[in-house]
Amino acid sequence: MFEKLKRIYNKDDFDYSSGQVDPYKFHPTFYFIAKAFQVLDNEPIPIWSTVSFVAMVIDAIIGVVFAGISTFHGMQIFDIPTTTEAGIYTIVLVYKLLILSCTQLDKAQYHCFLRIMREDFRYVCAEGAKYRERFFENQLQTWKVSLASVIFTSGIAIGMSGFALMSLIFYLITRTPGDGSKRPLLVPFWLGDVDFGATPTYEIAFNFSNYCFLAYAYNYIFMIQTQVVWVRQIATKADLVIWAIQDLLQDIHPATCKGEKAHFAELIKYRMREIVSQHQSMYTLMEAYAGVYKKLLMFEQKLCGPVVCLTAYCTAEKLDEGEFNAILLLLCIATVTLVFIPCYLCTFLGIKVKSISDACWSLSFWNAGREIRPYLVLIMQRSLRPLPLQAPGFEEISIQTFSAKMTSAYSLFNMLRQTKL
């Protein structure tokens, strides 16, 4: 069994050494999740994806309403643990609605990404065949990273639901009749005089909260896996440009006659046209990525610090009371990890795009005519521009910004712990 999973992970049984390769078959999990969230551009929308999408929207809206009411109630009675815990779930579910809205409002950008991805696979299987091996090495790494993100996100959701079930089992084993204790819930629901500890209200709330967590993980798998594949496709596009620049002057040497000079000039012109075309396509892909993910990343940037701080604070407060809230701890770990991934990807992408400028500078351009130099200068200047992921009032998306946000969250956590609210 382990060997079979290992072969799937390494794609040992998938032949991409010859012939045309379908990107959807190379990335089957990405294809499935893209179909589920209705962002494919060349296939009809299946009914099951519409049903699941509507169900996710409905559960997110209901969850936001209940979590928001519980947060407001906690503020009214100055119950800090309830306010912070319910507030965290409100933020998380609002983010889910934002992700779902992007799948409908930004379909053009998703379609642009899928179209360019298919073009790149077709290119390396035809006229760009000399880059085929290196291209698919990159795609194999993309497959492995995206699969790891799916497993991690799924594990967090399963862990949360598992801990909720274990808490209920532990309660049923340890409780004594008449002790006044209540069955545990994932979310601190409150709605007027409704008793969420009584049957059947408790069962409905318990199953609904578990469903919300699993649906949120399913939603976030789409967000994080699509982001991984998208960013790494842009990086692979940058590699195609770099490889083409490195091969620009292959078999080119100082001309010895007019005929040879004209031949070299035409050859360089043809190769330069391919480089500029790939470079333009890379920026089209990058702008489409920014059109979808800029708002999501800015939302994460502003709220990841408070979420990490509040989950850690609630966990610490529960421990002081002799209770271990594994669900909040898992949520804290998941938030830190899943916010770090986009910051790392954007840092990686920025370095990769700037490396195009280094490739131009490393080129022996003095062996060619003057006609290519303006193009090289333009490519270098454009490659040194910052990524289109900036907005007024926000910092750049990078590991440095992530570190600053985590430092701020830790400082706020220490302050809350010392105030003894």
Automatic annotation (TrEMBL):
The keyword Transcription does not apply. It is a multi-pass membrane protein. It comes from the Eukaryota. Coiled coil: none annotated. GO terms for molecular function: odorant binding; olfactory receptor activity. Its main location: membrane. The chain crosses the membrane at residues 45-69, 147-173, 327-351. GO terms for cellular component: plasma membrane. Keywords: Cell membrane, Membrane, Olfaction, Receptor, Sensory transduction, Transducer, Transmembrane, Transmembrane helix. GO terms for biological process: signal transduction. It is found in: Cell membrane. The keyword Transcription regulation does not apply. Belongs to the insect chemoreceptor superfamily. Heteromeric odorant receptor channel (TC 1.A.69) family. This is Odorant receptor. It comes from Hedya nubiferana. The lineage of its organism: Eukaryota, Metazoa, Ecdysozoa, Arthropoda, Hexapoda.
